[in-house]
């Protein structure tokens, strides 16, 4: 039974006859049309990277960041609506602060992911609200070691070794699956993350973008920080060389 165009997509609290909630699916479309974001969990930390599409050459470089800090040991990168992202990051900060005030220790990544998932899911229950059009990737380093979670617009959350969201997620997932993440260091993961973002960007053919990189690892003191500029520049050069090599191989195959 088809239910497209029959009014079942007008409210988030209404199921279609075949059990779908169209507003949640539309929110996922907003995520899929955004710049690619990835997370890589390796043996000594977690790396976050995102393709920030530049909609105008007049924008100030390095402004409107897509990677944000929710707590000193937690970083968040998102794919989707930036306005929704800022709201969710504020909520994550409130949850982190509340947990610390109550238990006098940093919030574990799993607890924070669960609370953020419950918060997102609450916005799929009432007709007066809409789902968040954001896929949230969360990196942390807590007592259990490096942690990586992704919270979807529906409120589902999963732990990952590597994950991707956004327009180029299929390309990114394919590249991530080739990596031996358990044997990699964060410095190696930074280069691979840059290469994957450049590969995904090349597939989607968007013209202007900035690469943002952050990490939470032993080298950063288990605090979420931006990747130092010299390492980020080195990773970008590595990614550009890898992309050029792929283009050369394709030209040789055509000949």
TrEMBL record:
Q: What is this protein called?
A: Proteasome subunit alpha type-7
Q: What is its EC number?
A: 3.4.25.1
Keywords attached to this entry: Hydrolase, Proteasome
Q: What class of enzyme is it?
A: hydrolase
